[in-house]
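Long-time lurker. I teach an intro course on protein structure, and each term I like to show students one example going from raw sequence to a predicted 3D structure in token notation. This year I'd like something fresh instead of my usual example. Would anyone be willing to generate the tokens for the chain below so I can use it in lecture? Attribution to the forum is fine with me.
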Amino acid sequence: MLEINLKQLESFVATVEHSGFTAAAAALYLTQSTVSAHVSALEQTLGVPLLVRGARRPVTLTPEGQNVYAQAREILNRCERLQALGPAEQPPLRLGASTAPGQGLLPELLTGFLQRCPDSRYVLLRGDSARIHSLMLDSRVHLGFVGAAMDPRRFVYHPIANDRLVLIAPNREPYPTLRRQGVSGLTLLTEQPLIRREPASGTRQSLEDYLRRSGIPADRLHPVAEIDTPEDVKAAVQRGLGVAVISALAVQEELAAGKLLSFDLDRSGVFRRIYLAWPADCPLTAAERRFADYVLSHAEGE
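-- Reply from a regular --
Happy to contribute to a lecture. Here you go:
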């Protein structure tokens, strides 16, 4: 039995209809390498070349490719008609978010999208960046908002926002005086007891990248605790256990309420990217594409 799947047919048809792998990948929300691999797998299974590839010209169909394209297009059309026979209510968008985008970006994005598409529904799962990647691989969520691009070979990443990392401290002496004196967060980071996130946290990975770039060895820090949720980190800082580095998006409410103080790590600020991500080998549904388009257009307008 031939091992042909719909992903291969969809990639092949999109490559033909968009005159190339790059445009097909953009249309399917996949990487170019994934689309090319699906088409190559289809050619290998059928035992014939389907496309004439050229470095400086659009891909064209071989005689065998013309026959396969007509049949593949009909198969996809039938699948679309079958899908239309299903329930009118669309399945919910299955989303995953790490803490910073979950608190600082998603509420506004979901509100805006639901105003535009009022019939949409969503399921949201939370965790650190590593857990969101794992949930996407297990198909428990289909789109993820993460603070680190952990595996570019297996996921598509689109940057949607810049997030500033700040050092937080309790709003009591000596920290208000140190803040007025212009003491940097980096100085406090190397002098004060430090509460760290768990190793799988995107925030911690970004901090460690910054320390490596700054030439600061790990033995300059004084860790006293490792805590796996930002809410518990903030509570521990408020109680005076130590200072911590956290996303500015995740601490807005506590700063506004005067519960905590923030210090920039250095004068230019330390930033990381927030990404919208999905598995590279899983084409998005039409509803997921609409939501991704909305998020990306919102990011471009930032």
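Some talking points for your students: The domain at 6-84 is CATH 1.10.10.10 (Arc Repressor Mutant, subunit A). The chain has 13 helices and eleven strands.
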